[in-house]
Amino acid sequence: MSAExxxxxxDLFSLxxxxxxxxxxxxxxxxxxxxxxxxxxxxKEKGYIVESNTGTYRLGYxxxxxxxxxRADNTLSSIVLPVMRHLTKExxxxxxxxxxxxxxxxxxxxxxxxxxxxxxAEQGQLLPLHAGASSKPFLAFMPEKTVDELAKRGDLxxxxxxxxxxxxxxxxxxxxxxxxxxxxSDSEVDEGVxxxxxPIRDSEDxxxxxxxxxxPRDRFLNKEVGSLVQHVLTAVEEAQKYL
Length: 243
Fold this sequence. Notes:
The chain is an alpha+beta fold. It contains 10 helices and 8 strands. It has helices at residues 3-10, 22-29, 33-46, 62-72, 76-91, 136-140, 145-153, 167-180, 217-221, 225-240; strands spanning 49-51, 57-59, 94-101, 104-111, 126-127, 183-186, 193-201, 207-216.
């Protein structure tokens, strides 16, 4: 059996074309139906193809097992770093990838801005959960009682005059983040630092991390903020393709 012809059959399937008949496959590949049937029979025996009650074929569950192997070999950093490099190139600002561990936010990766004046972020640096665009998207999608727990523990620390520490105001801010799908911060943790961040979701719709850009406030506001937001959202969409 020709491996190339077998792969040609598998390439015909997509989200839009999830089931195909032998006749349709033969037509699309300009191959005899007898030849197509032989390829499908072998794929079916190996679990790569499943035959329906109506005689059409769809992809089999063997691909789920293979997908798990691929995902296991692709850590979040290895997937997102190329996206971060492109994001920094496009925006000229520092890109930051953060993850959450319980109620702590950790800086996992950074790509520094090429600009003379830049925002510094270090791998392993701990960030507040309630302040900053690299953290607030995590809190926005946690149970609402988490904000109350942070307040009770005294963790709603005031970093600058712009840090939101009032429980009700913070909950309103988080609701806005959920609605629009991204967070913006203006001097919330460090005076004069502006940032935009959005959550990265995996294949099970869980938040795997937050991708953000940060830079001097004056430089950000001299640019089109809406365009910067779109750059971040586009980068997130690109990263999510591989999670």
